[in-house]
Amino acid sequence: MNFNMNFNNTPGLLEGRKKIEAGAYSCKQWLMDCRQVIRNHNPAIKALVHVDFDQALGAAREQDQNLSGGSLRGVPVAVKDVFDTADLPTEFNSPLHRGRRPTSNAACVESLLAAGAVLIGKAATVEFASVGRVAETVNPWDHHRTPGGSSSGSAAAVATGMAPVALATQTGGSTIRPASFCGVAAMKPSYGVVSVEGLRPYAPSLDTVGWMTRGVADLAAVANALNVFPGPEPSGNAPRIGFYRTPYWEEALPETRAALDWARARLAAAGVAVVDVDGPDNCDQLNQAQDTIMHGEGKAAYWAEYQRWPEQLHSELRREVENARGCSAADLRWAHDYLGAMRGRFDQAFAGFDAWLTPAVPGQAPLGLSSTGDAVFNRLWTGLHMPAVTLPGFRSEDKLPVGIQLVAPRFEDANLLRIAGLVEAALAG
Amino acid sequence: MNFNMNFNNTPGLLEGRKKIEAGAYSCKQWLMDCRQVIRNHNPAIKALVHVDFDQALGAAREQDQNLSGGSLRGVPVAVKDVFDTADLPTEFNSPLHRGRRPTSNAACVESLLAAGAVLIGKAATVEFASVGRVAETVNPWDHHRTPGGSSSGSAAAVATGMAPVALATQTGGSTIRPASFCGVAAMKPSYGVVSVEGLRPYAPSLDTVGWMTRGVADLAAVANALNVFPGPEPSGNAPRIGFYRTPYWEEALPETRAALDWARARLAAAGVAVVDVDGPDNCDQLNQAQDTIMHGEGKAAYWAEYQRWPEQLHSELRREVENARGCSAADLRWAHDYLGAMRGRFDQAFAGFDAWLTPAVPGQAPLGLSSTGDAVFNRLWTGLHMPAVTLPGFRSEDKLPVGIQLVAPRFEDANLLRIAGLVEAALAG
After folding, report:
1. Per-residue pLDDT for B236 more than 60?
2. pLDDT digits (tens, 9 = 90+) for B115-134
């Protein structure tokens, strides 16, 4: 148990950037400070799987010289090990790809580096960010609990201060869930607004690049470097926030209900009313439709490995290729058509609202490391292609983080971040 | 003008495979024969941009020893230069990526190689398979005409016999159009059934791996190696074929109308009635919706290059990043919702039909090399995620190829290939 640990001795993204621009900090020092956290905690927490300090130090020194540098000059960034990186291996947590060394960076990695970020390490992932081997990462707040997945290492790295930013992905619940379990902020943007080039695909009509930081302004800084904006401008009005229980409310454990009550109370204290909303009718099959597409498209994702290494491929991945769930063409058509219709209906249901407050996770991180927890409150939003942000702050009776989630209509990413910033301020009281 | 040229002195896929299995041919000899075609014609036609014969020869010799080899043992394959290959550069026809050398194969390339295929070369492409520089490839049947794009080199390589198979892609009309202009068979499968891993993304909700060969049985052999099957079994009934003009019929030039009349007449002679069908109501914005998504998602595709090389990036690609078409969030939502609804309605409109006969291209390949022609008869099917096959056979009054197209409901790829085989036999008379 590490209830009283305070990991974050390294600065957050904008905090560090400000110190550097004020001449009170250096890119090199930032990297050294993160290195110290990694040395202290990574052996136990296992958030990062590939690190090359000498190389990172060279990049940090370069950024120290680069006075006309970008918006992320000197920011150490951890990258989930499903994104190609030119300077570190990319192995997907797959024994079949041990030692794999791409020669180029994934587009989103390249974008952060082009803005001045420094690659500090690759973060542990569930195999292929899908259904294979879990990461060895433990939850920083209780080593007997899962950090969540599949972006396990990304969440733990940001939670401990190994890096102020980590890139993640979400096809089901792989960004929002681990962030909520580890007590960090995270964003899963609208589908299609960030390039997936150099990301190992799982289900292309769902795969989304996400990221984690310590707070909303830092999330926005990353969104900016990834050119999520210019999308539609934020609306500028007073925040109009709905409270949406989802069709899966019965899965919400007491600590998640408490987290949402806490958030509503804090918002009320800040003068922001949160109004109960109903979703569209007939939306109780959202997760089933997302699941059908994920596994239906997953059938193609590991076919080449299946041909090359039929025996060695993880049994869960073999099940994907073999379509062990028996997903039929009719099932797939139904799932695409159902979600295709629901996306528009959800947008309409948002009329008069900027964002909805909704559960991020069923509860605190469950005990054990063999499962990464339930994505029941994430899959629907991934399937709906809507942007989602999780905010930390609440702690359960066990002193474990439980995130809350804000969602918005498709492509309203900028307005969602605006609202999330206002909510974050209200939560801080 | 090359009206009377007969390029195909090398065997087609199954033809060559049969000869090899009968001991009458070798993988090495097949490669040498293709090399001869490449030496004779590639300097003028410019279909292949990277070739390494020594390496390919090593692979062919290996396959000659590999008597327990796969279904594509010894088959030379050309790969569009937007798929990563470990043994040849992958440059996307982008000057910004000159000399780029990935260390792994794209999943679909790996699948063909795992089945025994031999990589013979990378095929010319429009820059990033999108809107940048056109390929230098010329139409093999008239060097003053475009081969079509963006899979220009793939189509020309198969048309001339440089390779019996080429991998292609389609986000708008990039597989079916060049195949039709060059007189080869091609398949664009249903969205999501072949992995896009290692393919440079343009618009992830549309990007589809396609392939070209000389005939339908060869298309099916490639589909098999790519694990498109097992999908739904072919239906087994007598072919029920509709004739669908699309909302864009006025774009069909006399030679396309003649090609379709010819096909219908041949089918009638074979005892197959082709029945006029109407599509669903309100389907006249299919291409506009596809265009909106393609450019909307294209905004993300070149952002990293835009950051790194703002001046050097092709102006058309800069326009994508800058959203020069002014695609709004509302536009994107409309396009996704419209296509989301239309996909189901088209499937329903197919009740009682196995496939629809429909134009593949407006007409023969237009004169000039600066444009790759119009994808008006392709974009809708890509947007609808439906499988499509183009068949060669018809020649215009100018003796130029004009393909016809068959389409089927989503995921009915196996049945589409069955019908295409029957149609091909009828066309041969």
Report:
1. yes
2. 999 999 999 999 999 999 99
Q: Would you tell me which CATH number, out of the four given (3.40.1120.10, 3.30.300.30, 3.90.1300.10, 3.40.50.2300), belongs to the domain A13-242+352-428?
A: 3.90.1300.10
Residue type for A219, please? L
Residue B307 touches partner A, C-beta closer than 8 Å: yes
User: How many CB atoms are located within 10 Å of the residue A319 CB?
Assistant: 17
Q: With the CA atoms of A297, A302, A307 and A308 taken in that order, what torsion angle do they form, in degrees rounded to the nearest 10?
A: 170
From residue A75, how far is each of A199, A213, B425 by CA, in Å?
21, 11, 63
**Per-residue confidence at B2, pLDDT binned at 50, 70, 90?**
very low
Side chain identity at residue A215, one-letter code: G
**Which of A256-265, A353-362, A374-383, B230-239 shows the lowest mean pLDDT across its residues?**
B230-239
List the beta bridge partners of residue B187. B211, B389
Residue among B105, B193, B329 whose CB faces A300 most closely: B193
Nearest to B416 by CA among B339, B322, B332, B353: B353
Q: How many Å apart are CA B406 and CA B81, to the nearest integer?
A: 27
Q: Could you tell me if B2 and B147 are in contact, meaning their C-beta atoms sit under 8 angstroms apart?
A: no
The owner of tokens 């989304």 is A208
Q: Given B107, B301, B329, which is nearest A411 (Cβ)?
A: B329
Which of A296-305, B229-238, B387-396, B413-422 is the least confident region?
B229-238
| Cα–Cα distance measured from residue B127 to residue B94, given in angstroms and rounded to the nearest whole number | 6
Rounded to the nearest integer, the mean pLDDT of chain B is 96
Judged by a CB distance cut-off of 8 A, whether residue B310 touches chain A is: no
Instruction: Establish whether the linkage from the previous residue to A230 is cis, with ω within 30° of 0.
Output: yes
Q: Where are the domains of chain B?
A: 13-236
User: Would you call B80 a catalytic residue per the annotation?
Assistant: yes
Sheet holding B185-188, edge to edge: B48-50, B118-123, B76-80, B165-170, B208-213, B185-188, B388-391, B404-407, B355-359, B241-243, B274-276
Residues of A in contact with B207 (CB under 8 A): 204
Contacts 24+ apart (CB under 8 A), B6-9: B7/B37, B7/B41, B7/B140, B7/B159, B7/B160, B7/B161, B8/B160, B8/B161, B8/B214, B9/B33, B9/B37, B9/B161
Q: Enumerate the active-site residues of A.
A: 80, 150, 174
| Residue B174 a catalytic site member | yes
- Specify burial of residue A38 (Cβ count, 10 A radius: 0-12, 13-18, 19+): buried
For helices A216-225 and A13-21, the axis angle rounded to 10 degrees is: 70
In the stretch 88-117 of chain A, residues with CB closer than 8 A to chain B read 100-105, 107-108, 110-111, 114-115
Nearest CA in chain A to B339: A340
CB of B43 closer than 8 Å to CB of B68: no
pLDDT of residue A232: 72
The pTM of this model reads 0.97
State the average pLDDT over residues A129-151.
Answer: 97
Whether the per-residue pLDDT at B144 is higher than 70: the answer is yes
Taking 70 as the threshold, does the pLDDT of residue B370 lie above it?
yes
Listed by number, the residues of chain B in 382-411 with a beta carbon closer than 8 Å to a beta carbon of chain A are 385, 409-411
> In this complex, is the C-beta atom of A333 within 8 Å of any C-beta atom belonging to chain B?
yes
Q: Say how many CA atoms lie within 13 Å of A360 toward its Cβ.
A: 37
DSSP assignment letter at B415: H
Q: Is the pLDDT of residue B237 over 60?
A: yes
B chain contacts of residue A411, beta-carbon cutoff 8 Å: 329, 332-333
pLDDT (tens digit, 9 = 90+) per residue, A194-253? 999 999 999 999 999 999 999 999 999 999 999 998 777 777 788 999 999 999 999 999
Alpha-carbon distance of A93 to A371, in angstroms, equals 16
* CATH architecture under which domain B13-236 falls: Alpha-Beta Complex (3.90)
